[in-house]
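Journal club prep — side note

Before the paper discussion, L.F. wants everyone to see what a predicted structure for a comparable chain looks like in token form. Sequence:
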Amino acid sequence: MKIIEGLKAKGQTVAHCHGAFDLMHLGHIKHFEAAKKNADILVVTVTQDQYIKKGPGRPVFSEILRAEAIASLQCVDYVAVNRWPNAIETLKILKPNFYVKGGEYRDGLDDPNRGLFKEYEAVKSVGGQIYFTDEITFSSSHFINNYFNNYSESVRDFLKKFREKYSAEVIKQKIKELKSMKVLVIGDAVIDEYHFCRPLGKSGKENLVVMQYLNEESYAGGILALANHLAGFCDDVHLVTMLGSKDPREDFIYKNLKSNISTKFFYRADAPTVAKRRFIDSVFLNKLFEVYYFEDNQLPSEISAQVTGYLKQVIRNYDLVVVLDYAHGFLNAGLIDLISQEAKFLAVNTQTNSANHGFNLITKYPRADYICIDEPELRLATHQKFAPVEDLTKEIAAKLNAKKVIITRGHRGSTAYASGEFHHTPVFSTKIVDRVGAGDAFLAITAPCVAAGFPMDLVSFIGNMAGALKIQVVGNKSSVESDALLKAMTAMLK
């Protein structure tokens, strides 16, 4: 910053370019050269690895390698790795005379929802101008997808066929159409607490491992996280859940829910709001130990009657009802029957965890229009350890009269079923930061797609993309957003 201030004080003009530049190619070089023609000094900032949302396997090159490659160009005077997700703060600090983007970004200048619009506002606020270069353009994603072994052979084969059927623009338009859908989400609220620790070694006197506490973070999990995912795709999301009067944590929940989520909370006096405290190795992010704070006994009858009465009043007002069932004491048999009977379109996920293993099966729902569960949960529900997934999917679909089913299968991807046809989608990312919440994100983003009548091969693709983005995030620290999902899909389909 001081260097740039000194240069500007001497009367020199500064141009600023910003982007991922993964990988750098001739189009970028032409862009930099054109930017330098209108200024004395050219500064280029590159996006940090953690903020690049172009799908699995990206960036191909680390932020340091990308910065070093750009620094080797004669036309570039200074290079830095940007500290923020976008260039807004950097523009305010550098105060360049010119902010330079490629001509393909012009359309984003008039859209308040696009990042470029906000960057333009930042440029103007420091007295700078924005201009666009019209040099020859290429797509880094096209080169990476077609000439790098960025994906496994199964993914490359899948994408080759998928691109023939769907374009990024078609998918983008269909996802935009979800905004008007009215969605009711029902399920268990969870506060995910992550306590980061440093292992010190074995205790000298006891047979246990000693940890040093470093710091902690809390995230809105369970149905709260699902509602946040959904709220990035649908404008009207209504959340119904149970909190505990002993420690409701309402302020935290309200602070961590998106503004377009309306809420209806019920309270049970004999419990706290469910919290799951995980102790994490801060270096490798391995989970070491976990404690549940909850009461999973059946809902008191008077509270159950309140929930039943409320749902009877509102459930028919919604196009889609999404149920996320952890069996943490909220959804009892009476509520399940009511939801199954009254929902216009019902999407359900039941999850197996250490507190309910073998008890929380999808078969406790008499009906669902869309079922989304993982393979172990499917096998528990059908009591079949080795039978083919396809046979078990048909069985569970018939039992619940579900027309559409997706089975998530971890490293095997996902299997979608509808109208007697199966669609298999491979897993897109093998780099995992944290699996917590991946299934919730998959359900949240695929449920409105299924309710809107998307083809199931497309739904499975969208779900796998959402899962690939979600597992790059610690816990439920952030949601899968529509812009990030569309950007990642566009990059993969080039």
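L.F.'s comment for the group: The domain at 2-150 is CATH 3.40.50.620 (Rossmann fold). Keep this in mind when we get to the figures.
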